[in-house]
Amino acid sequence: MLDTNKKPTILFSDEQExxxxxxxxxxxxxxxxxxxxxxxxxxxxxxxPLWDEMASLGWLGIAVPEEFGxxxxxxxxxxxxxxxxxxxxxxxxxxxxxLAAQALLKAGTRAQKETWLPKICEGAIATLALSEPDGDWxxxxxxxxxxxxxxxxxxxGTKTFVTDAASAxxxxxxxxxxxxxxxxxxxxxxxxxxxxTREIVIDETRRSYRLDxxxxxxxxxxxxxxxxxxxxxxxIDQAACLLLSxxxxxxxxxxxxxxxxxxxxRKQFDRYIGSYQALKHPTVDALLAMxxxxxHLYYAATVFGDGIEGEVAVRMAKAQSGSAxxxxxxxxxxxxxxxxxxxxxxxxxxxxxGIWCEAQFGDATHHRAKLAExxx
Amino acid sequence: MLDTNKKPTILFSDEQExxxxxxxxxxxxxxxxxxxxxxxxxxxxxxxPLWDEMASLGWLGIAVPEEFGxxxxxxxxxxxxxxxxxxxxxxxxxxxxxLAAQALLKAGTRAQKETWLPKICEGAIATLALSEPDGDWxxxxxxxxxxxxxxxxxxxGTKTFVTDAASAxxxxxxxxxxxxxxxxxxxxxxxxxxxxTREIVIDETRRSYRLDxxxxxxxxxxxxxxxxxxxxxxxIDQAACLLLSxxxxxxxxxxxxxxxxxxxxRKQFDRYIGSYQALKHPTVDALLAMxxxxxHLYYAATVFGDGIEGEVAVRMAKAQSGSAxxxxxxxxxxxxxxxxxxxxxxxxxxxxxGIWCEAQFGDATHHRAKLAExxx
Amino acid sequence: xxxxxxxxxxxDAFRQEVADWFTANKPTDPGFLLPQxxxxxxxxxxFYFLRxxxxxxxEAGYLGMAWxxxxxxxxxxxxxxxxxxxxxxxQKTPFMTNTIGLNWAGPLILNMGTEEQKxxxxxxxxxxxxxxxxxxxxxxxxxxxxxxxLKATRDGKEFVLNGSKIWTSLGRHxxxxxxxxxxxxxxxxxxxxxxxxxxxMQIQGIEVVPIKKLTGEFGFNQTFFTDAxxxxxxxxGKEGGGWQVAMATLAFxxxxxxxxxxxxxxxxxxxxxxxxxxxxxxRNGKPAIEDVAIRDxxxxxxxxxxxxxxxxxxxxIKPLTQERPSSIPMSGKLIGSEYGRRxxxxxxxxxxxxxxxxxxxxxxxxxxxxxxxxxxxxxxTIGGGTSEVQHNIIGERVLGLPKS
Amino acid sequence: xxxxxxxxxxxDAFRQEVADWFTANKPTDPGFLLPQxxxxxxxxxxFYFLRxxxxxxxEAGYLGMAWxxxxxxxxxxxxxxxxxxxxxxxQKTPFMTNTIGLNWAGPLILNMGTEEQKxxxxxxxxxxxxxxxxxxxxxxxxxxxxxxxLKATRDGKEFVLNGSKIWTSLGRHxxxxxxxxxxxxxxxxxxxxxxxxxxxMQIQGIEVVPIKKLTGEFGFNQTFFTDAxxxxxxxxGKEGGGWQVAMATLAFxxxxxxxxxxxxxxxxxxxxxxxxxxxxxxRNGKPAIEDVAIRDxxxxxxxxxxxxxxxxxxxxIKPLTQERPSSIPMSGKLIGSEYGRRxxxxxxxxxxxxxxxxxxxxxxxxxxxxxxxxxxxxxxTIGGGTSEVQHNIIGERVLGLPKS
Lengths: 376, 376, 404, 404
Prior knowledge:
The complex is a heterotetramer, with two copies of chain A and two copies of chain C. Chain A contains twelve helices and eleven strands. By secondary structure, chain A is of the alpha+beta class. The termini of chain A are close together. In chain A, about 60% of the residues are buried. The model of chain A has no long low-confidence stretch (mean pLDDT about 95). Chain C has three domains: about 10-100 and about 120-130, Butyryl-Coa Dehydrogenase, subunit A, domain 1 (Orthogonal Bundle), CATH 1.10.540; about 135-255, Beta Barrel (Butyryl-CoA Dehydrogenase, subunit A, domain 2), CATH 2.40.110; about 270-400, Butyryl-CoA Dehydrogenase, subunit A, domain 3 (Up-down Bundle), CATH 1.20.140. Chain C contains eleven helices and nine strands. Chain C is globular and about 75 Å long. The termini of chain C are far apart. Chains in contact: A-B, A-C, A-D, B-C, B-D, C-D.
């Protein structure tokens, strides 16, 4: 059980401070809402030059050890980049790629790490294929499978929400192999045409794909280290929760700013609508929920990976941040009145992002249930 | 499973209409808040003349068949008397006595009914002893016991929340007898001095006692009909929920009126405080919760005893009314500001009643869990 | 409307006949997601599908059954139409898409229109050959109808229209509009300057521009009027008497008075459908409905949905509403619309990772209906006076609290 | 305050010494329910018990450790006092009851008082021989301190006090009061007419009337002043400079600046205690903590309690608060007080039928502490600016929203 009397302390490194400032400026500059809307309308993937710029800033290798071409920092530093991206609704393969790199780090063979991690640091796109069509959040429940015949693995099943898969050089998928969860590394050349189907998802800034594994064959060396796989899956789950929390916190702050701007400028019945307590007070509640989420986020970043304490912190951050963004964006639509009901109002973009963030890797109810198992 | 597509219909009889009007006037007249406060301060039981007046109005026999001296109506008619009593925070033995009469009706032997029901209709006070020191709401979990030796029963254990016991002519207690729940009838003369201890309860309009059963001996004829006891306990549970719902609905309406009066007359910063949306809107929410509770209440009164439909309705009424009173009275304290923090403000009296109503026979969470068992 | 009231046996037989007809004739899945109300009709394929369905129902004799025969109605007792309407709800058939015609314009014309207007308009309303739309709300003062600014300037026997109306559903398919416009700028009382018109939509100077909704779909429009000329015969009621006509129309719309053609106008989501969803969706390998936290919320939703039905039932019992007779009628819109938003949002939370699918993805539950329905629920909590304004109204008019 | 900063080893040794002392000396259950803060001291037996405890702590050298030796303090580094205070919280010892003296008046006098005042007042504050109370709030304008109306009219070398103050905790036991009063009715700026006094309570013309709280207990008073005369030497700060002194005092109270004597002032309820309650209370024959709906709420409360600690931690990290630096500091009171109310209310819901017991019943959980604590929680959500006013303040000052 957790010692609830212990005073938790957030630590914030100089690297985090620098990254937060650089990323905030970068996002303000490169991801204004007009660009995000253009990209949605054009249904385009992220522009390659922008991605290369992110790579050149070193963001893809933040949490990759120096020996593999990264900076040797932690996911706590990645958080400071993801949060402003969330605020600006940037939809980039940064999270997918970071998580895939973590999977490699935690369970990749020496050869896999040496081949792929440096490429990722330089801008290769990678992604994970964990979800399945039933939408269950329990990552260890896997229907997809790999069977070995000699040196060849044959895959079977369907993976969903494989983000950025069409532009990815590398997909790491979870399958059952010899009755146990396993991770396999699928390179772009192993994906025949038709294996990826674009999914229609609520968050239009995302590029998500369904991956049909049936008949895909791989060399047996595509398997990640079986001994390390269970721990790696657990690590990926928590890492994903951490980064999605960062994205949701940023989003909550972004949509609160959208709301405040409207409340300060729109008049009804000859008064600024922000002067009405019916709008002002819930907006304050949204602010406080976001501030709390942000505190949980940076504590989770501080103790990430630290056993039970780390797991508790990251689940709390995920629960609180998802709820904060859901509330702030739902109220933002409402408080925009008729305009809020139109596609032109940015509130709906944040609401869609909020549904995405809750749907991925578990909503607040799910994480509270997991926390109860740990705490009581 | 319940057919949720079926449109539920509330029926309201002429008798209910008449009783509601008479009881509303009676309560307005006899139970002004000043009298309630006097009675609390004096720590007195209800005045006997007032009780006799209630008896002479026929209220103790409303749901008792004519053959036993009652009116032969239903608990649905009792609801219309209890609701205005709840509005005025009257603390009378009406609910205790009505429930005890129901226990006799459902499980009493012919002799017990013939002896006691006419007396009750004429003004004898009766009560139930069901709760035990662990405060568990599951009435069938009983630690108290009766053991037979020849024609004599010896009781053991402690019953709690035996309301109005000191003035009662009759207490019906639940005990385990031969391994099964049983009800025993304890007359006033069987209670030696010291068997009843006044309890300190949050609702100061109540007179509640702890009953020490140890060593009480009764003739075996004090047992109610064993075959009918399980059904009777179930019936009592639902009847208590129905009447407590009526009391809570009345209370919610009463405290909403207290709040509204203050919001209309108190000024702060040169405006009537009721003009502030931060107070106005939650007060509207309290109103709507109360209106919903009242609709559930009168539907529960309509279908009371009608199998699953009846049980579902009464549990919904109990859940909704308890929450409505809790919310309305909690907000009433808050909206009275500094005055709300004083004993002189009536809001606290309703808040105390609200805690009582939720604590007796289960709160909303408890009943929702029971409903889930029935509905899903 | 008829002298020969049907006997209980006749009613039973009719009930059975109707049930059989709808079972046999209700449309099968068209292969695309249908809207839940006329306000959501966003594509031509949706529109033509729904128009054909209304026509089929009408031609079977099941719409406008109590409207006069001489204008295309059935001339039968209202009770028969009510049986049909209930059956349509029960069988969850698509709604009658010419809603404005059937529930607003039709009753108004039958009640206040000239013989010519009745002959000209009523048959097409029932058959869905002539679609109607409404022009009440304007940009910038949504709920404040009395403040309508669209100008109708008299020019001999014509009026010239200038201005704009918003939220005109079916505006692109409509042949006619009921329009509230300002014929006099200089009245002391803003209400006295308003007049009410039945206008043709296919004339010069009227442009209908679709509004893209937060769902990404269409359904609402903004209608721009630029020197559009209409004949004075388009007036209904007196010049300057538009406010009274508008209030009468809204009374028809709310069903506060009789006269609607029948058929249901909306396929609202019900908690029973969310319960069904909870039985399907998986959580930790088990149906979501086995999760205690989910059960708890589901029960609360069932209680809240039933509260609304029970409120309606209690509203008809005078002794049980005498302290605040307007409380239930005035709060129905607030309660219902907020409930709808909450129900849909909860339905999303049941779907696990798949909550992130949207309309059109084959893996989306019910075709993405819940996602769309959650977004569309804001039309209820925003349109026709936001929930915040509703709270004010109830606080002030029901509880007598001072104005904000 | 001391040059010789203790070494880590010395600190560790001191920590152990302190822990041992409190373990050995903390009072046993007095047989009656203790208050959770000085505002709740309602009976003489509570008061004397708490006063004796403070005296014992002081005499052991564990209070005012960093205050100057010449006035009865310990003259030691603040870090030692902080260790003691933390240990008191950890061991849940009773609080230091002379709160106004230790945290408000004492720091103020040490900071702004004359040598005579320091000599006269500080030792009695620490030993609890001289209890202090405060006279800031007045009836009818609770939160609007600057609007204080109690008159202090100069008459030669004296001031004559007329008016009333409310919520004066410990008023009946206090020897002194810190008082904010109006010495000038005719200033342009209402703040400039205020002066600040340290006054004796046991003089003619001061009457302390207990206020019965919603708990049924006492603890607050209303203090009436009728031609009460005090010497001008009671002034602290300049005549007309009372507002600045009051603001400085409130800064001490909030702990925003150093100078408090140490020791904790409140035994707040924590969620860990509610978890313990949930393990004890029964529901359907099983511990309440096994009920999934209860677990879900408990976890949310744990998250919310931790939010507050984490907010405090984050508030010290500038880059993580730069967008709205005042957001966390300004919202702490609102969040903490609403959390307290919610936590206590939830604690009641765990108790089944026994939630209906009250203070004094032997079967009440923890002596009825939760019931009382729930009621007392309203002092947090109402006192010092209601939660509604706090929402306004945050909306306007942190988010820049227009005034209501």
